[in-house]
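Morning run. Coffee first, then this:
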Amino acid sequence: MVSKFIITLAALFSFASINNRVENKEYQSLISHSPSSHNHADNHDKIMEIPSGQAVPTVDLVVHKDAMKGYNLEVKVTNFQFAPERVNTDATPGEGHGHIYINNKKLTRLYGSWYYLENLQPGRNEITVSLNANNHMALAHNGKRIFDTEVVNVPGVTQSQK
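And here it is:
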């Protein structure tokens, strides 16, 4: 458990943008987490389609370099309300939480618009935020999951350069 935590922290260490996405680009690769790490593992691989006629949520991830150290993630959403008080309950249209992934590995849940990352590893880091229902199902429109990804390039020596 401690080694997983250390690996996760090591995987957390910049800046180029991939456009706001609502696509199905092998999204299953984003879901690289231990099934034992939470109770709703069955729902993480499932999608909740936004019903016809309902406003489709969007997410826009903006990464800001922190003045002291690390990075501040700003998560701008439309047609979606963060509802941490209702996590692990039945899905309610238009509300839920986010999931943050670093290099295709789930880091944590997101219950609001800001999150601080202390470190990212040197090299290319893909940071992805997905929108999820209270029951952890990924929100989707026309079969495509709703998420956004930013790429942060951190200077320094990477493992492959050693």
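Residues 67 and 94 are 34 Å apart (CA to CA). Good start to the day.
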